[in-house]
Every structure is written in C-alpha cells, then in structure tokens.
Design brief:
By secondary structure, the protein is an alpha/beta fold. 41% of the residues lie in helices and 13% in strands. The chain has one domain (8-269): TIM Barrel, CATH 3.20.20.20. It is built from nine helices and eight strands. The radius of gyration is 17 Å and the shape is globular.
Length: 274
C-alpha cells in the first residue's frame, strides 16, 4: 500500500471550523470536496480527511459531530473519483468504520491507536493502512507539559512498542506507517531535531510520514503569524524530508509539494529520468 520508490504526497483536508492552518475554509462540505478533487488533479497520492481539530488547546468533539463533518466529504470525493486513495484522520472506530465502507483505505490516528484499542482489531479485519502518530497527552494539553527523558529516543521507543502491539494483534507489517508528530507535544527545537534526524527512525523499517505544513515553528523562524503565508517554509521541510528519507509528506498545498519532491528526488539520483 505504501510501497513506492518516490515520496508520496498526502493532501490535508480539515473539515473543522477552527483549523489552525486555514481558519476553517473547508468546513463547508462542497468546499472541502472541491479542495480534495483539485488536490487529486495537482498530484496528491493520498487525501487525509479529518473532522476533529488537533490544534494546540483544542477539545475533542462528539462522534456524531465528527461523522457529520467528514462523511459527506468522503462520499462526495469518492463519487467523483472512486480510485483515489483516502485516509481518515480519526481516533474512533465508529468513524473509521463509516469511512471504510465508503472506500477509505487508511486510518490515521493521532493517538497512535491508544484511544480506542478496538480500532486496531477493525483495521486488521478491514485490511487498512495504519498510521501511528506520536503525541504527548491530548491536543488540549500537549504543549503545556513537554518533557522527555531522551529525545528523540523516547519517540523511537514509543514506535517500537506501538508497532509490536499492532503486529502482535495481527496487523501486517507492510501496512504500518510511523509519524513522529511534529508539533504534537514538541518544542520548536524538537521539531527541527526531528526534521534533521528523520533517518534516525529508519531502523524501524517502516515508512515515515512527516507533517510539518504551515506549523507554528515555521512562523517563529519566518516571523510570519499567518499560517497561510508559510508556504515557502513548508517547502523547505518537504525538501528536507525527501533528503532524509521520508516516505510521505503531509501538506496543505499539494502542487508545489509535488514539484518540490520530484526535483529533490532528481537531484538525489543525479538524473532527470525517474
């Protein structure tokens, strides 16, 4: 599912009214569907659709609200393009079940499949891809008590434990992806360490996903408070991710990210021929 010799580009569609990155421009279902279809045209390999904000300080929403946000968007996109690869960004089995019934192929859980243990069982039964993300605490408190004994080894150890849990419970090894969770319980400097040491996680023998698009540490570096104006900074993280061995980059602006990936890959292989 994730086996590719090139870096895959995952387009982000937040169907929330309070997304940190865009202020909720995809809260309207039709807008979100249009965004997703354009991302496919622009070269997105995967669309990641979520209905629960994970911005720092945010609170979880109830399951019915999450379903009402994501399901019309998933259905609308799949009706127009049944072959596209869609990921559901959720921690809940009920939401994952509804999404998978509509053709979604990947579950992306910011809690690393710790919130709802039955989500692992469902993923095994459904044969989905499973993205394990690292986060300290919850979005509400993840940036208030950042404490590691040994960074980034603590995150590596977390992945070892979670991978073992999923594989022991029947998830096939080639369906697991790891995401260090840039911005999720990390200082700005932690984020830079992760980007510079993506290859530190290569010993896990899993595809690595990096999601640094528009995040606050870029705003700090660039002195740019508006997330929508952090596009060039985001592209720097995309290039670094490719150079350091990331398998997937998760971005809001798909076309420039696709172009950045292809050019960086050509430089690394020293030929224009793929």
């Amino acid at each position: 599912m994730f086996n590719s010799e090139r870096t895959l580009v995952m387009g982000v569609i937040n169907t929330t009214p309070d997304s940190f990155s865009d202020g909720g421009i995809n809260f309207n279902h039709d807008d979100a569907i249009s965004t997703g279809l354009k991302m496919i045209v622009d070269g997105a390999d995967i669309l990641d659709i979520g209905g629960e904000s994970t911005r720092p300080g945010s609170s979880f929403v109830d399951v019915q609200e999450e379903l009402s946000r994501v399901m019309p968007v998933i259905k609308g996109i799949m009706q127009e393009n049944r072959d596209c690869v869609v990921s559901i960004d959720t921690r809940r089995r009920l939401v994952a079940e509804a999404a998978i019934k509509e053709g979604v192929r990947i579950i992306n859980d910011v809690t690393g499949f710790r919130h709802d243990p039955t989500l692992v069982d469902f993923g095994r039964e459904a044969g989905t891809g499973m993205i394990i993300m690292h986060m300290l605490g919850t979005p509400r408190d993840m940036q208030t008590n950042i404490n590691y004994l040994n960074f980034p080894q603590d995150i590596h150890d977390f992945f070892v434990e979670r991978i073992n849990e999923l594989e022991t419970r029947g998830i096939e090894p080639d369906r697991i992806v790891v995401d260090p969770g840039i911005g999720f319980g990390k200082t700005f400097d932690h984020n830079l360490i992760l980007l510079n040491r993506i290859d530190f996680f290569s010993t896990l023998n899993k595809p690595i996903l990096i999601g640094a698009s528009r995040k606050a540490f870029l705003g700090k570096i660039l002195n740019e408070p508006d997330p929508m104006k952090r596009g060039v900074g985001t592209l720097a993280t995309v290039a670094m991710s490719v150079m350091k061995g990331a398998s997937i980059v998760r971005v809001h602006d798909v076309l420039p990210a696709v172009q950045m990936c292809r050019v960086t890959e050509a430089i690394l292989r020293e030929t224009v021929e793929p």
